[in-house]
# Entry
Amino acid sequence: MPRYKLTIEYDGRPFVGWQRQSNGLSIQQCLEEAVQGFAGEAVTVHGAGRTDAGVHATGQVAHIDLGRPFPADTVRDAINAHLRPVPVAVLRAVPASDTFEARFSAVERRYRYRIVNRRAPLTVDRGLAWHVRYPLDVAAMAGAAAALEGRHDFTSFRAKECQAKSPVKTLDELDVRPAGAEIVVTARARSFLHHQVRTMVGTLVEIGRGRRPPDAIPAILAARDRAAAGPTCPPDGLTLTRVGYPEELA
Amino acid sequence: MPRYKLTIEYDGRPFVGWQRQSNGLSIQQCLEEAVQGFAGEAVTVHGAGRTDAGVHATGQVAHIDLGRPFPADTVRDAINAHLRPVPVAVLRAVPASDTFEARFSAVERRYRYRIVNRRAPLTVDRGLAWHVRYPLDVAAMAGAAAALEGRHDFTSFRAKECQAKSPVKTLDELDVRPAGAEIVVTARARSFLHHQVRTMVGTLVEIGRGRRPPDAIPAILAARDRAAAGPTCPPDGLTLTRVGYPEELA
# Structure
């Protein structure tokens, strides 16, 4: 069966999250209905990352198997035609080998988290960034972020419901960068635990506002206890920007 | 009476435009009601630029006169408290002299226009950018934009309803720059005619898609006829980003 790799963008606001759920509309369901609409067959859309409700994507990746071959651009345009008017779009569709699995072949996931740090409420960025009213010390946040990079037991930054076998992960990058009134956090790893990015950002913001010392991270990691870290920040600012694959599959 | 200069941000989507109108909610009306809500008096909010329906701002400027003085940060926070939940926010409030007039003292206005040039529909950027599906030649657009810079009779780029006394304006900058799948146009002038930016962008896109030659601009300007230029593009991609004042008033 011909397999296709899809690169997908969505506005997470109206959805219960990536994954099909009985309690509301998911991105996966919209895509599966759109594929069925054009290909005339029930198809599972296998995503690389199960983003939560309200989390956005500009570079989610999924794969589908179709009963018969179509030109890749036709797959992209036909799914998009059936997706309207929901805010989900296939940016690219390319033929993929049988060994390509969107989730299990991935070697890198990148997330961006946008914080708008000012007194005034959000307008155009409502739902697309986290509004933090109290002043943040970006240098303290950047220093704390560096202490999270590397291979650690991230139990303290893991949601209770997390289904990963091991809490040990390698965080390749956690960058904190000011951009005007905005603070942009970039997180990069092979994979993340459930809520890991949002709990890391929530903790960095506690450090940035002076509620915890800049050198708090090592003790939080060592505690191996979710209660040791800061709160899970809102989904609004989070976007899955890229999923990377080995060169032979990309 | 104490005067304040307000720097204002808004999402233009739900509004009929900046200016008060009988047929729907304007940004000006929201601000005037918010000022009245906190100061207890009817106040006119004088804006620097009358943005159209659907046009956004990150740097609109207005002035207000209040019956009695308040700390400037109180003015900002109190207006914002009364603005919720509409997507309008006062970013800054500062005391201003009696000679400061948001509209008439302005010496520079800057607009940004965002085009997303790709096949796939928009998701997070819906209403915040113009989606152009056919491929655009950015270099041809940039060359044509340069021919619009300078002092010209812009009659060909002026809406019929335009109330400006003279169609002669000096366009200080019209920059066209690719940014990934996006094309960002920056326009800067002391003032613009009604729909001038949107008609310039609409014309540049016709050149970018090859419907008009790259050197079409001089003949369009010389025609002094709105019918000679391209269509007025949608408001979605347009944002008023800055209004500049002489240093002694800024």
